[in-house]
Amino acid sequence: MKQNWISILPTSLMVVCPVMAMAQQTNKPNVVVIMADDVGYGDLSCNNDGNTVHTPNVDRLANSGVRFTDAHAAAATSTPSRYSFLTGHYCWRRKDTGIAPGDAGMIIRPEQYTVADMFRENGYVTGAIGKWHLGLGDKTGEQDWNKKITPNLSDIGFDYYYIMAATADRVPCVYIENGIVANYDASAPIEVSYEKPFQGVPTGKDNPELLYNLKPSHGHDQAIVNGISRIGYMKGGGKALWKDEYIADSIASHAVDFIKTHKDEPFFLYCATNDIHVPRFPNERFRGKSGMGYRGDAILQFDWTVGQVLDALDEMGLTDNTLVILTSDNGPVVDDGYKDRAVELLGEHRPWGPFRGSKYSNFEAGTRIPFVVRWPGKVEKGVSSALVSQIDFLGTMAEMLGVKLNSSQKKDSEGYLNSWLGKSEKGRDYVIEAAGALSVSDGKWKYITPNKKRPYNPNTNVETGNNPSDQLYNLESDIAEKHNVAYKHPKEVQRLQKILQKERNK
To answer: Per-residue pLDDT for 446 more than 70?
Structure first.
């Protein structure tokens, strides 16, 4: 493909022949990313044989595209994973890409190149809808939520955005539309603090009787919004405050509106859902439908959102000219801070699939994520075992567009278009992942660097995979990472250590 389809036409021809110009314009494929939140490999029926929970819309996507079995996020938590996905830079190269507070300043700075910048520079309208969790404004804690917040997503490549300022369990519990609080209520000015509560404003810790929707299991006991206590303190908001049971509806409707508004021009849409992340409080349409409590019901709600996006593409006649990527920011976690009976009602469902660990973990389930690509007529339908990393989204989209990135722009991101389209089983030589430590895997051997952090988190029931000794696992014979064979294969340990050292030195 060529980089600039339209720019090669003389201006006079574009004026005289607008229909031809439009025809040329539509040769650019639209790109839609559906970024799920905390959805594990085993949470989707296309990955778990549909024995416990059914996700028919995701299955519909997978059946008409390529489903990957060895795809990885760059990190086992949200903020660093999304940072790497949108920039092509490993999060561990910086010290400020950990899980962001709700009042974090922008982690992706305006001077940093993003995949949205690339699409916009190449004639695309760009949009971000849903969960953000990558900060807003210049400095942490200094935003004025009652005015336009700058810098913002328009400074890193997005033409339009309607986002949750952070994530559902953190204040402020409002949407931001193009830099301004959506549905702003001047009678209830917003104040946010992550240091101390506001006098006279109830908290989950001191006023549990006000928690009529969900109660915390650990932490999450500060500001109360919609009968659910959160992380951080908040005052005001009024009619701008979201209701958790309508978050999915809001994300889906804005995504569909974006598609319909820009159906006649190429667009890039980053649609980041929230459903499975805590606090889980799905719409009444889905409650009780999964048999696994709110977490299972939220999976059904997520699948509904996928269906809304796919239906909009069908309705607008855009399906054949749209590349859709469905994935998740990290692995699953069952109890992440609220009493939603997710552990009690899990039954035979295994959100992590056959892998060990979960969100926050160095083990496979922390970063091995669902990954489905559909582009009718361009994708070889089926299942691929190619080794894939989300770090390559920027590089692979650049390859698709014919864009030449310099070393600073792409940094860690490479182009694997044939692999992502299912035309080649040759993926990456290795993937690097960050949780409590760094790990590297070549698809067969996985090495986890030693560290002295805690090996188990009792609050979330997570095996973190932290260990003061070298860890080496043979994923071909031990996919569950039960047998550390570092002492048996010192040469493999050394080989993988050298890869990590080479990457650190870039």
So the answer is: yes
